[in-house]
């Protein structure tokens, strides 16, 4: 999520670091910082806000040195402030760290370190790494490998996903970095070595790169790059030549941010879940602090959102009613405040918003609070207005989403609500423990299932070529398939400009069936076992009018192909988790239709990523 740059060589590091961070700006960030080794001391400059603030700061108080690291932060723990910006130092200021990712077990580590006298200056998970390295350093003898060993010993105590980059005063000739899931690329120049989270930051200096793999450490000096595994055994890494231009590099080699973000979904889902399912199979949602009496006495959950977040809420409603046995309502935020709603002190209001800044959602959330409800915000942006105003907070940790059409935020909103519903089901004792255990297992397996669904891309792209010129099409589904149909339809409209409509399958016969004529494509979602036969009957209704039906069904569904023209087969999951997987081929379909039609996919006409006016 965050941007990383590092330099060790013969040139002044600061301008190289700032330029690298500028080239990573497109990814979105909320604060930035650098650390440079100047005359044997580590000097840190960091500031919340845009890079211009950091640039100003370093102009007023310059730092000079040939070794340095830089970071743009996209907050996951702790709001965007100067203190929470990276780099983070240990107690002595002799060790400095930047980090991309999440340290899952940072809370117990932080408590232990504090008990041992370590002083923390930020709310971040990252800072524990600096103190762990400090502790390990103190135990080790003065050898040339002391820094690498200390870093290894420190990270051995952490769990999570990360790329960590470290400078130490005692070893002024090097940068040490470790990768566990979050990307890290090393670039080789003449008498200098760079490192970055993304290729664009390296391109002005070199196209010769080495990819650091999961579970590896890289030790960078001006002349050498050493790659080892986490026990110190050297690993050979061939140098690769990057041929991407700057624009391709920003999109990680994908032609559009939307496609990149669709492919990032397995990672994003892992981040959402990380650290929130404990070993005993309980859900731990750190920011959701509603007391037990409130949760037990709840008589209504009321949810509000706009656009894609609204579709996510429709899934959430179903899950909460099913697992927590609380009546749940969902309102479009733009409608809610004009209908004299019945929400009060025994209602839990839940507002869902990727940006946390959507004007209608904020107004609806405020209205609910004004009427006495406790407010839970489910949002992506740490410290957003919605997050600041809420009583309870559940961050979806999707990472920055740049394409206007939302993809990974939707999936992570679903995962966050599944965890919330499980938690409520556990706390209220309203769901069978075996069901909750099944769902927790299913949740852990979801990133892999979504990864498998992404493999459908080629066949979905062929379908998109077939339907690129249709005038309109329909999406139908029942139960949890219905909100997925709505989201699939919205995706298609947003970026391909093809008219489409989503219908609860049973509702077709009450009007829209009149529009189904020979050759009209109908996408039918059939993942919900308890209404399977009913949906099949609706498929037969449209088939009888000549529709071409494409089903989205589980890979082991043997009977569906008898009723439809084509089947998109998704991995089998628990029916309650199906929306997370079933939407993936529909996102890809919308994307490929839009591409076939030659549209500006990341910036569709008339639409904005964040709508801050009513
Ligand atoms: C805009 C975006 C949509 C998004 C909606 C709500 O319309 O284009 O993708 O779903 O706003 O945004 P939010 O940030 O509140 O989730």
Short summary:
This protein has 19 helices and 24 strands. It is an alpha/beta fold and 614 residues long.
**Count of alpha and pi helical runs:** 19
| First-residue to last-residue Cα separation | 30 Å
Largest sheet, order of strands side by side? Answer: 3-2-4-1-10-9-11-14
Which small molecules are bound?
A: 6-O-phosphono-alpha-D-glucopyranose
Task: Give the CATH class of the largest domain.
Answer: Alpha Beta
Relevant CATH superfamily of the largest domain: Aminohydrolase, N-terminal nucleophile (Ntn) domain
Query: Total number of β-strand segments?
Result: 24
Tally of structural domains: 3
In terms of quaternary structure, the protein is single chain
Taken from the alpha-carbon principal axes, the silhouette is globular
CATH fold-level topology of the largest domain:
Glutamine Phosphoribosylpyrophosphate, subunit 1, domain 1
Mean pLDDT: 94
Structure description:
The chain is of the alpha/beta class and 614 residues long. The chain folds into three domains: 248 residues, Aminohydrolase, N-terminal nucleophile (Ntn) domain (Glutamine Phosphoribosylpyrophosphate, subunit 1, domain 1, 4-Layer Sandwich), CATH 3.60.20; 195 residues, 3-Layer(aba) Sandwich (Rossmann fold); 141 residues, Rossmann fold, CATH 3.40.50.10490. 36% of the residues lie in helices and 22% in strands. The strands form four sheets. Strands 3-2-4-1-10-9-11-14 form an eight-stranded antiparallel β-sheet, with helices on one face. A six-stranded antiparallel β-sheet has the order 5-6-7-8-12-13. A hairpin with a 5-residue loop joins strand 5 and strand 6. Helix 8 runs antiparallel to helix 15. The protein is globular, with a radius of gyration of 25 Å. Bound molecules: 6-O-phosphono-alpha-D-glucopyranose.
């Amino acid at each position: 999520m965050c941007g990383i740059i590092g330099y060790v060589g013969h040139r002044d590091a600061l301008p190289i670091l700032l330029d690298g961070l500028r080239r990573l700006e497109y990814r979105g960030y909320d604060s930035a910082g650098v650390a440079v080794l100047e005359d044997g001391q580590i000097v840190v400059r960091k500031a919340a806000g845009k890079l211009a603030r950091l640039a100003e700061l370093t102009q007023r108080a310059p730092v000079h040195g040939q070794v340095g690291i830089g970071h743009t932060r996209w907050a996951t723990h702790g709001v965007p402030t100067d203190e929470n910006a990276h780099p983070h130092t240990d107690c002595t200021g002799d060790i400095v760290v930047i980090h991309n990712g999440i340290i899952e077990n940072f809370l117990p580590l932080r408590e232990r370190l504090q008990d041992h006298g370590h002083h923390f200056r930020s709310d971040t998970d990252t800072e524990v790494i600096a103190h762990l390295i400090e502790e390990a350093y103190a135990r080790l003898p003065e050898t040339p490998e002391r820094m690498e060993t200390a870093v290894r010993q420190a990270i051995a105590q952490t769990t999570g996903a990360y790329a960590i980059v470290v400078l130490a005063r005692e070893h002024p000739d090097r940068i040490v970095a470790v990768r566990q899931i979050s990307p890290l690329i090393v670039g080789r120049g003449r008498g200098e070595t760079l490192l970055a989270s993304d290729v664009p930051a390296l391109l002005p200096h070199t196209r010769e790169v080495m990819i650091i793999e999961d579970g590896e450490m890289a030790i960078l000096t001006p002349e050498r790059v050493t790659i080892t595994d986490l026990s110190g055994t050297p690993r050979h890494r061939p140098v690769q030549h990057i041929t991407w231009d700057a624009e391709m590099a920003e999109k990680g080699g994908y032609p559009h941010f939307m496609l990149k973000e669709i492919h990032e979904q397995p990672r994003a889902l892992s981040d959402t879940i990380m650290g929130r399912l404990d070993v005993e199979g309980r859900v731990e949602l750190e920011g959701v602090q509603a007391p037990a009496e409130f949760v037990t006495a709840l008589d209504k959950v009321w949810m509000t959102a706009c656009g894609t977040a609204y579709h996510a809420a429709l899934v959430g409603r179903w899950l909460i009613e099913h697992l927590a046995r609380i009546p749940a309502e969902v309102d479009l935020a733009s409608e809610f405040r004009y209908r004299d709603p019945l929400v009060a002190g025994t209602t839990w209001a839940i507002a869902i918003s990727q940006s946390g800044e959507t004007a209608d959602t904020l107004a609806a959330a405020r209205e609910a609070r004004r009427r006495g409800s406790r407010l839970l915000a489910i949002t992506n942006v740490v410290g957003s207005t919605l997050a600041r105003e809420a009583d309870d907070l559940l961050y979806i940790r999707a990472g920055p989403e740049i394409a206007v059409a939302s993809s990974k935020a939707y999936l992570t909103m679903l995962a966050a609500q599944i965890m919330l519903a499980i938690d409520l089901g556990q706390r209220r004792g309203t769901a069978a423990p075996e069901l909750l255990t099944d769902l927790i297992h299913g949740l852990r397996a979801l990133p892999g299932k979504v990864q498998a669904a992404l493999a459908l891309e080629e066949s979905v792209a062929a379908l998109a070529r077939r339907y690129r010129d249709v005038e309109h099409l329909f999406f139908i589904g029942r139960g949890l398939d219905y909100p997925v149909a709505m989201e699939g339809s919205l995706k298609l409209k947003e970026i391909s400009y093809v008219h489409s409509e989503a219908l609860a399958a049973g509702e077709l016969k009450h009007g829209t069936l009149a529009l189904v004529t020979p050759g009209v494509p109908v996408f039918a979602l059939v993942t919900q076992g308890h209404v399977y036969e009913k949906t099949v009957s609706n498929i037969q209704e449209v088939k009888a009018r000549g529709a071409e039906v494409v089903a989205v069904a589980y890979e082991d569904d043997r009977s569906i192909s008898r009723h439809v023209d084509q089947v998109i087969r998704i991995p089998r999951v628990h029916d309650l988790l199906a929306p997370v997987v079933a939407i993936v081929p529909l996102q890809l379909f919308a994307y490929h239709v839009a591409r076939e039609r030659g549209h500006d996919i990341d910036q569709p006409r008339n639409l904005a990523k964040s709508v801050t006016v009513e």
